[in-house]
Amino acid sequence: MEQAAPDPERLLQPAPLEPLSHPDAGLESMVGEETKGARDEGPGDGTMTENNFSLKKIEISVSEAEKRTGRNAMNMQETYTAYLIETRSVEHSDGQSVLTDSLWRRYSEFELLRNYLLVYYPHIVVPPLPEKRAEFVWHKLSADNMDPDFVERRRIGLENFLLRVASHPILCRDKIFYLFLTQEGNWKETVNETGFQLKADSRLKALNATFRVKNPDKIILKRNISSGILADRLYGVYKVHGNYGRVFSEWSAIEKEMGDGLQSAGHHMDVYASSIDDILEDEEHYADQLKEYLFYAEALRAVCRKHELTQYDLETAAQDLAAKKQQCEELATGTVRTFSLKGMTTKLFGQETPEQREARIKMLEEQIKEGEQQLKSKNLEGREFVKNAWADIERFKEQKNHDLKEALISYAVMQISMCKKAIWDILKDCAVLFCFSFCVPSGRKKS
Amino acid sequence: MSGGPPKALPSTGPQSLRDMPHPLAGSSSEEAVGGDSTPSPDLLTARSFGDKDLILPNGGTPAGTASPASSSSLLNRLQLDDDMDGETRDLFVTVDDPKKHVCTMETYITYRITTKSTRVEFDLPEYSVRRRYQDFDWLRNKLEESQPTHLIPPLPEKFVVKGVVDRFSEEFVETRRKALDKFLKRITDHPVLSFNEHFNVFLTAKDLNAHKKQGMALLTRVGESVKHVAGGYKLRNRPLEFAAIGEYLDTFALKLGTIDRIAQRIIKEEIEYLVELREYGPVYSTWSALEAELAEPLEGVSACIGNCSTALEELTDDMTEDFLPVLREYILYSDSMKSVLKKRDQVQAEYEAKLEAVALRKEERPKVPADVEKCQDRMECFNADLKADMERWQNNKRQDFRQLLMGMADKNIQYYEKCLMAWESIIPLLQEKQEAK
């Protein structure tokens, strides 16, 4: 997931956009205990508010999901899921948390927030959202957005999104983000009023679409696909073992001394078969963690695309400027080296007057002056962009390495404990097998 | 019972519980296996088996400190103590060393049969001969003919049903060898069958074919008489105990058949899972090549998954080679036992018919004619033999299935132990970097 270092010399950024950071919206956020798989992100570094806004720690959680029906833009009935976002502030002194805000949002609002952040923070690797549609819902027949497992996983994904934004040193100060957490009604209008959609570079969207899946991502994506099929197969293995339960039970009914042992074996199989549900839940959780970074990679690429685009703009402007300079020179010296429409029409319809020529030269000179200034500022802004983007990319890389390591460790730990439990279960049931059946003590009287 | 069969040897069933070492005995007997299956105190007599180092899992926690090696070896030790008392054994037979013979007409496998015995029926203390499947088949037929009142053990399938299996593959030959060894050992353990002349010839003759041609008809008294029972006698009521046996065998075979089918399905699912797993591991390798700090751990995960795949493959093979054959063998056994039951019915039917005929003659002093007496004799012998054999069979069946299930449990434990080791090995890869940060 590494990209080549952008060349500092050739950078450009389109019209600078100011993040709408409200001075009072300094939030220092902390991962809440309610979250599943709590992350230890401790973003204490540099997220302090500069002004006198009282120091409050914020805990954010997406605690519930609810099915709703409503009317959509085309006035048709639709069903969707709404998610409850709760924000708690933690008083420093006693560590008690107080519920400060709670509101309901649906997935499309999350999307809106993210798109806004993408436009206003082009140099930041913006955290990804969970999948829009249910893709691989293992061992279930259809991919259903209303499926409770999917909704649950999405709830976790949305919570992770908010937590990551809140723990980002720059993003956490954004006013729109703050309002997302606090202002239920009217938020959509507020976002749209920023006019961010106009500011969004449509070329960027097009570029992103064409370069959807690049090599590293394909591999991780494939891994996730594998994980889905793998989970399916594993499920099959466990569940068929469950068929043993009934047969062993029926068999034990016709046996005298062997009965207990066979019952034990059958029971063991039943327990084994039902253990798959917990196992797959853990597998799914792990797959989701990897998927998050797959989507993160796309965000990373967006930053680089931005850079490429701005570089293209810079080159175009530079070329434009050079052409104008040349034109000016030709007019001044009277030599026509380059083709121009004016030159042609002059040849056809007669020379222009010296006054006309002077006017044109003057106009060009002004344009050149403007162009040079613009180029200078664009260059400057470009370098700023690179510096900031690079800083964020470094931050992202460290976070990624840390998170993935944790994910791998907990996955390995899960596998280890699963193996130990399996061994234990077998030994336990074997003890019954051996001790209490299959043996005919010599002292026992046979009827 | 007049003129019964030769005295039966002491039962060769499993030893008494009292004599067996308790699996949880030893230094850590306080830490019993789980809380729910604590055995009663009188079973705690430990016999010195040389297994003082029995290490057991701690209390009831799954994450106990059981060392991997000990879980599996514990099971192995538990299975060892079922051997017969060494003192009463005077005949030992083994089947091993399969060899392929290529002749102009055919290709076939022979097995070496080694016999050691102190019995007077054997001229030499030791014999070593080579036999092929045909010879075993001949032996079994002879035994059925000459000992019709006894249960003859089954042979592995003669023909390979699914034509895809290679008759000369290592796995097939080994599976067959094990079954043939079992067959001979069962006969060896039988107090009557082991003295059968055909068995003796099978074990000792240099040239078995010569004997086959001679058509030795050394039938025992009972065998000869039973052979001449004409068919066509209908039995009205099977005695309760034999009816019970018949019903039992029916259900037993049915259940085993179901288990066989389930086992085959599990193997199929496991193979499909294995295919996916084998693709999954290398993905981590490819990913690792793109990373810097994560490269080593990811490579480790790839290797780990590879190891788990191999372990699963071994487990699946074990199921096919060890578990399925025993199920099939017992199904065959049940079938042959049911035909013996039917023969018994025939004998009883003949006796009852003849008895009825006498009763109908209405003589003043109905003297039971000699041939009716003979019939009664035959029937009672048959019943006795069958009952004794059934009990023997039940004991052996118990032993066999205990060994089978424990064996499968052991193999499963080994599988999990391998996976455990694989996953534990990558934890340090992930952690040392964390600490270095």
UniProtKB/TrEMBL annotation, chain A:
Region Disordered: list its residue ranges: 1-55
Q: State whether keyword Electron transport applies.
A: no
Example of a GO MF term: phosphatidylinositol-3-phosphate binding
* Keywords noted in UniProt: Protein transport, Transport
Q: What is this protein called?
A: PX domain-containing protein
For this record, the Gene Ontology CC terms, alphabetical, are: early endosome membrane; plasma membrane; SNARE complex
Q: Where is the sequence biased in composition, kind Basic and acidic residues? A: 33-42
Gene3D superfamilies attached to this UniProt entry: Arfaptin homology (AH) domain/BAR domain, Phox-like domain
Keyword Cytoplasm attached: no
The chain positions of domain PX read 61-187
In terms of Pfam families, this protein maps to:
PX
Q: Which GO terms describe its biological process?
A: positive regulation of autophagosome assembly; protein transport
The family line of this record is: Belongs to the sorting nexin family.
Automatic annotation (TrEMBL), chain B:
User: What Pfam families is this protein classified in?
Assistant: BAR, PX
Classification via CDD domains = BAR_SNX30 (cd07667), PX_SNX7_30_like (cd06860)
Keywords (A to Z) from UniProt: Protein transport, Transport
Disordered, as annotated region = 1-73
Q: Where does the PX domain lie?
A: 89-210
Q: Name one GO cellular component term.
A: phagophore assembly site
Asked if the Swiss-Prot or TrEMBL record annotates the protein with the keyword Cell inner membrane, the reply is no
Q: How does it sit in the membrane?
A: Peripheral membrane protein
Biological process per Gene Ontology, one example term: piecemeal microautophagy of the nucleus
Q: How does it assemble?
A: Heterodimer; heterodimerizes with SNX4.
**Assigned protein family:** Belongs to the sorting nexin family.
Q: What is the name of this protein? A: Sorting nexin-30
- Taxonomic source organism: Capra hircus (Goat)
Organism lineage: Eukaryota, Metazoa, Chordata, Craniata, Vertebrata
Gene symbol of the encoding locus? SNX30
